[in-house]
């Protein structure tokens, strides 16, 4: 009677599957022992440790465990993904570092989510605690990952390809034949062939060992080093950057000092004394626009002609600044941002004395450069009785007027084909002496009284160039003298931008190398068989399964076979002449 017992719940098919799985595991373990050093170190990646190998719990143990996790490639990719996610709110939500006015407008329009966003620091994403933490952890993770892998890679470069495994038939790509050439001749021919194909090759024992594709690991390291360069360049640029805006009317100029900027922002470590000394004058702005077709009104020429000089005593030079073609002075770039019109107006007081004449920049509100703004006469004005007063005018300008009776005051075209200036005036206190900063394009009418016409209604007039609006009760007049154009410039200094570009190019090149270059090894063994005929075996091993490896091995075999041709007695099975027994599925 048999003592064998079986599990009644398991079926014969399940038992067969279990047996096959056990056999497969045994074969894999046997293959690993057979390959030995030949199948190792095809990558610089650190080996995964089993959970049972974790250090004993304790401060040092936990620190070592945390460091291994932080410096693993898996965590580095997770942190890189989190950094990308963290940049999303910085792109969608207005940032204080870019435009505080837009942030305040957003807060006023979204009162429900604003407190949540403030607690999450969504209005200052790139300087927030959580974004900085991800950034620093990613930086440390990449360094901790690269340093040991670099040492491993350097060691691989200094070492020779390992010797051939005992059984080449166990490798994924394999071929063999018998030849009448001597084993030494075959090995010499194989060595020449491998070196000609740019393999690192040498003779070890009765075989030639060759390896190729080291640039795969080099590309992997370059990719990670480039990421570190980009992170450092980004941080350096944020800490030492400067950026400001300046609106310049034709004929006026700009000098690169803090007091000249309309708006200026800088990094926390930026020194105001480090501004690059230069100046420029806006000689002319030229803008032409498409007049027909579906793209009517689209700019065709959009350029600012300037005269600039470097340093305090530099020679004047001419330059045309276009969109995406900035003026560059010692690392500082001057970009052309926007364009608009500045109506030239003159104001006379009640006694007929001209007290104000200037080109007043107005801000566009649509693509056809319909513009609004304010004209402020703060000093020198006296009414008909000689009493000091201040004047303010709300201005609405259209470069191309639709015409009377058309029912619209909006511009029909960006060019100044028919300029019209609409004004309504006020007198009183402009509030400029209160010490509170004012927007130059807005009129504070809190302490002002509007002028009224003879009909008792608010005084409003539309003026063509050369026309004058008379103020009531002998208060004076305002004349629309002509038009000048203005251009808005962004002056920015972004240090380390060249390093960031270099890092980006290096990352792309490294990633391409790590993806498209295959690390592989080839062995050619030539030994004399029992019957005195030389048996040649060739086998290849790659880091990952690839159809290119068998094809490459076949090409090498054809080339070597030309110098060590197959022996005439091909009836004998080559596998029998070999001391190795081919594994199941091996190529022949």
Key descriptive features of the protein:
disordered N terminus, 11 helices, Cyt_c_bgen_Ccs1/CcsB/ResB, disordered C terminus, transmembrane, cytochrome c-type biogenesis, Cytochrome c biogenesis protein ResB, 588 residues, ResB-like_domain, 7-stranded antiparallel beta sheet, alpha+beta
Account of the 3D structure:
With 588 residues, this protein is an alpha+beta fold. The protein has eleven helices and 22 strands. Strand 8 and strand 9 (317-322) form a beta hairpin. The two termini are 48 Å apart.
Could you estimate the helical fraction of the residues in percent? 25-40%
Described by the principal axes of the CA atoms, the overall outline is elongated
Average of the residue pLDDT scores:
85
Largest sheet: 7 strands, antiparallel
Measured by DSSP, the beta-strand proportion falls in: 25-35%
Distance linking N and C termini: 48 Å
Structural class: alpha+beta
Extract low-pLDDT stretches. 1-10, 570-588
- Tell me the number of strands: 22
Transmembrane segments: 75-93, 129-148, 221-240, 498-517
Protein name: Cytochrome c biogenesis protein ResB
Biased composition (Low complexity): 1-13
Main location: membrane
């Amino acid at each position: 009677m048999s003592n064998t017992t079986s599990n009644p719940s398991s079926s014969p098919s399940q038992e067969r599957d279990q047996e096959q799985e056990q056999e497969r595991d045994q074969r894999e373990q046997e293959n690993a022992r057979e390959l030995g050093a030949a199948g190792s170190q095809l990558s610089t990646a650190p080996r995964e440790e089993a959970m049972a190998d974790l250090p004993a719990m304790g401060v040092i143990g936990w620190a070592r465990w945390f460091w291994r996790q932080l410096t693993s490639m898996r965590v580095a990719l997770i942190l890189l993904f989190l950094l990308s996610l963290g940049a999303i709110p910085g792109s969608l939500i207005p940032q204080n570092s870019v435009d505080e006015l837009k942030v305040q407008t957003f807060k006023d329009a979204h009162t429900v989510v604003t407190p949540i966003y403030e607690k999450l620091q969504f209005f200052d994403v790139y300087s927030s605690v959580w974004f900085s933490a991800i950034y620093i952890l990613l930086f440390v993770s990449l360094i901790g990952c690269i340093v040991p892998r670099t040492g491993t890679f350097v060691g691989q470069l200094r070492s020779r390809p390992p010797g051939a495994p005992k059984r080449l038939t166990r490798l994924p790509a394999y071929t063999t034949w018998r030849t009448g050439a001597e084993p030494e001749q075959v090995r010499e021919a194989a060595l020449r062939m491998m070196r000609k194909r740019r393999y690192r090759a040498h003779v070890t024992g009765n075989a030639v060992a060759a390896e190729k594709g080291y640039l795969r690991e080099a590309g992997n390291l370059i990719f990670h080093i480039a990421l570190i360069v980009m992170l450092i360049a980004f941080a350096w640029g944020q800490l030492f950057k400067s950026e400001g805006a300046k609106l310049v009317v034709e004929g006026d100029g700009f000098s690169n000092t803090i007091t000249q900027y309309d708006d200026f922002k800088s990094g926390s470590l930026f020194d105001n004394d480090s501004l690059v000394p230069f100046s420029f004058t806006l000689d002319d702005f030229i803008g032409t626009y498409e007049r027909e077709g579906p793209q009517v009104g689209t700019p065709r020429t959009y350029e600012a002609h300037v005269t600039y000089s470097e340093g305090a005593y530099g020679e004047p030079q001419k330059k045309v600044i276009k969109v995406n073609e900035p003026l560059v002075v010692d690392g500082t770039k001057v970009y052309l941002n926007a364009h608009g019109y500045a109506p030239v107006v003159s104001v006379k007081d009640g006694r007929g004395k001209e007290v104000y004449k200037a080109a007043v920049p107005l801000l566009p509100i649509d693509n056809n450069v319909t513009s609004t703004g304010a004209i402020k006469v703060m000093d020198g004005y006296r009414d008909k009785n000689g009493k000091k007063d201040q004047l303010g005018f709300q201005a609405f300008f259209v470069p191309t007027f639709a015409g009377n009776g058309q029912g619209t005051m909006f511009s029909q075209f960006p060019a100044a084909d028919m300029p019209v200036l609409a004004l309504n005036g006020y007198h009183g206190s402009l509030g400029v002496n209160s010490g509170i900063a004012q927007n130059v394009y807005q009129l504070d009418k809190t302490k002002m009284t509007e002028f009224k016409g003879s009909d008792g209604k608010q005084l409003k007039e539309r003026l063509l160039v050369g026309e004058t609006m008379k103020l009531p009760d002998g208060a004076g007049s305002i004349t629309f003298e002509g038009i000048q154009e203005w251009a808005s410039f962004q002056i920015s200094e972004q240090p380390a931008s060249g390093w960031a570009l270099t890092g980006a190019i290096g990352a792309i090149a490294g990633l391409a190398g790590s993806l498209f270059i295959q690390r592989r090894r080839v062995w050619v063994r030539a030994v004399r068989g029992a019957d005195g005929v030389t048996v040649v075996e060739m086998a290849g091993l790659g880091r990952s399964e690839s159809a290119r490896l068998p094809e490459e091995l076949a090409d090498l075999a054809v080339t070597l076979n030309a110098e060590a041709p197959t022996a005439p007695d091909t009836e004998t099975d080559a596998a029998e002449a070999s001391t190795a027994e081919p594994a199941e599925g091996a190529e022949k």
